[in-house]
């Protein structure tokens, strides 16, 4: 039996059901993530794609329980990791899991790393929080971690500060911190943002190697479909806080269902394209305070929109085996179990 078939039979490591995450704006809560459900299997790489403002990062912060207190909160749904309901755990219990069993690589390493502490201090802090280890052992492990993510002269870098490193090196440090305790699940939020093309390729190759060596599951958040094609087993396309399509990576590229996915793929520059202008998606993602109450949230930008698209909210449905889309073009298909309208 192939590895992919074995993967499909395994119980989920992470299961998210009907997740809703809202933010307080002038005393009213607005959903940034709305009725999102998905699973991540052991050793699986799941890509999450969509434009800025679609809710990708908010979803990841909800899983990590890192929403800004007093501003954002999970208002509905369940997040189950390795059999544990994260929403029902205390802050102390979450702290034992976060950084050890679930880790995250944040979008901008310069703002994620503390500028007043050395690289070694920040690596060792993670180790002290989760492992019974001496200071000497922690320093040796910090050096080994830096070496494992491809940083040369780790014995020197361990005593340097973030501002002394290049963007690519800072991102490697963030990866070292994230994998320090060999987590079961790694969430990578735009891990190659603001890096040049050569460094991007190196970082992606590094992540893939680490995932394979450590048998980790990965949620890879990106707006770059080229990264998705290179890295992922399965892909979720998000728009305005909701999942609009989900399937395996090959199917998404060769047989996209949702018009939004089709437009995203059409916007990828092609080497043999003689057009003078790049394709683009007209309009913008609606803001939290201006979200359509009924109908498809993509309707006013969709070239295939029908009158009913503005009044009927589409459900995420199975259009083909293993392929789901939230579009009225497929309204005769069977709704996915466990997802409410």
Radius of gyration: 21 Å
- What is the overall number of helices? 12
What's the structural domain tally? 2
CATH architecture of the largest domain: 3-Layer(aba) Sandwich
The poorly predicted ranges are: 333-341
Strand arrangement within the widest β-sheet reads: 6-7-8-3-9-10-12-11-13
Count of DSSP strands: 13
| Secondary-structure content class | alpha/beta
Question: Which term fits the overall shape?
Answer: globular
Compressed to H and E, one letter per element, the order equals HEEEHEEHEHHHHHEHEHEEHHEEE
CATH class of the largest domain: Alpha Beta
Beta-strand fraction estimate: 15-25%
Offer a quick outline of the entry.
By secondary structure, this protein is α/β, with parallel strands linked by helices. Helices cover 32% and strands 23% of the residues.
What does this structure look like?
With 341 residues, this protein is an alpha/beta fold. Helices cover 32% and strands 23% of the residues. It has twelve helices and 13 strands. Strands 6-7-8-3-9-10-12-11-13 form a nine-stranded mixed sheet, sandwiched between helices. Strands 2-1-4-5 form a four-stranded antiparallel sheet. Helix 5 packs across helix 6 (135-148), helix 6 (135-148) crosses helix 8 and helix 8 (167-179) runs parallel beside helix 9 (197-214). Mean pLDDT is 89; it is low at 333-341.
């Amino acid at each position: 039996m192939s590895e992919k078939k074995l993967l499909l039979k395994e119980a989920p490591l992470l299961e998210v059901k009907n997740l809703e995450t809202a933010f307080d704006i002038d005393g009213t809560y607005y959903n940034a993530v709305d009725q999102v459900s998905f699973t991540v299997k052991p050793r699986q790489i799941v890509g999450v794609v969509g434009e800025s403002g679609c809710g990708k990062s908010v979803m990841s912060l909800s899983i990590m329980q890192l929403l800004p207190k007093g501003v954002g909160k999970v208002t509905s749904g369940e997040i189950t990791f390795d059999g544990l309901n994260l929403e029902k755990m205390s802050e102390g219990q979450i702290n034992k899991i976060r950084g050890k069993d679930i880790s995250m690589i944040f979008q901008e390493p310069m703002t994620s790393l503390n500028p007043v502490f050395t690289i070694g201090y920040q690596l060792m802090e993670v180790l002290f929080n989760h492992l019974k280890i001496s200071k000497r052992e922690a320093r040796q492990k910090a050096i080994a971690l830096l070496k494992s993510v491809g940083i040369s002269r780790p014995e020197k870098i361990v005593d340097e500060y973030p501002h002394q490193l290049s963007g690519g090196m800072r991102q490697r440090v963030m990866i070292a911190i994230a994998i320090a305790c060999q987590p079961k699940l790694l969430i990578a939020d735009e891990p190659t943002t603001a890096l040049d093309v050569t460094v991007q390729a190196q970082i992606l190759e590094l992540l893939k190697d680490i995932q394979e060596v450590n048998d980790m599951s990965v949620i890879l958040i990106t707006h770059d479909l080229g990264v998705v094609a290179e890295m992922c087993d399965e892909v979720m396309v998000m728009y305005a806080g909701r999942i609009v399509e989900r399937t395996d990576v090959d199917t998404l590229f060769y047989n996209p269902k949702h018009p939004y996915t089709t437009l995203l793929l059409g916007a990828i520059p092609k080497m043999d394209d003689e057009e003078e202008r790049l394709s683009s998606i007209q309009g913008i993602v609606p803001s939290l305070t201006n979200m359509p109450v009924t109908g498809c949230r993509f309707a006013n930008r969709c070239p295939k929109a029908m009158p009913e698209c503005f009044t009927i909210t589409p459900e995420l449905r199975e259009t083909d085996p293993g392929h789901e889309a939230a579009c009225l073009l497929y309204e005769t298909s069977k709704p996915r179990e466990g997802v409410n309208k």
